[in-house]
Amino acid sequence: MYSTTFALALSVLTALTATWPVGPPRPAVVRGWEPPASAYGPGHRGVDLAAPPGTEVRAAAAGRVSFAGPVAGRGVLSITHPSTGTPPLRTTYEPVRPLVRPGTEVTAGQVVAVVSGPPSHCAPVCLHWGLRRGDTYLNPLTLLPRPPSRLLPLTPP
Q1: Quick one: which H or E segment has residue 12?
Q2: How many Å apart are CA 114 and CA 93, to the nearest integer?
């Protein structure tokens, strides 16, 4: 299930200009993406980035704010990215205090929120960054540009 969706996402992601949602400097990944084996199985449906309360959160890619408000006592922001397929990709950020309203068009790197408390599922507070296509969760790190590959010698010189 995830391999087909992942391949489709990768074909579309190359068209996006993406950036880290917090930093510079580049944040530490406190916890990586761990896809569930099934739709309702355990897993980690995003990545946690080290970010203390008050840290500015930037839109990872251009899009339109689709949600900005509380969910289960935490501030959440969702941005839909048009022209990324059907259904379009959507990035999510929590816990945050949104600085934009639903319907607002944002650019990649634009400050859209501030990390807020109470502490989420990581201590101290971090930013949980998610990526979805419809009901399928994807690894948000695939949005980011990768450095060029380098070939290394097979044996020491």
Answers
A1: helix 2-13
A2: 10
- Can you tell me the distance from the alpha carbon of 81 to that of 64, in angstroms, rounded to the nearest whole number? 7
**Which residues neighbour 25 within 8 Å (Cβ) at sequence distance 6 or greater?**
none
Take residue 6 and report the two structure tokens written for it.
């992942």
pLDDT digit string (tens) for 97-116? Answer: 999 999 999 999 999 999 99
pTM of the entire predicted model: 0.83
- Its sign, for the CA torsion 59, 65, 66, 70, is positive
- Which residue type sits at 58? R
Rounded to whole angstroms, the Cα distance separating 92 from 60 reads 10
- Cβ atoms 138, 5 nearer than 8 A: yes
| CB 16 within 8 Å of CB 143 | yes
Comparing CA positions, the residue from 101, 98, 132 lying closest to residue 115 is 98
Cα–Cα separations (whole angstroms), residue 86 to 67, 76, 133: 19, 23, 8
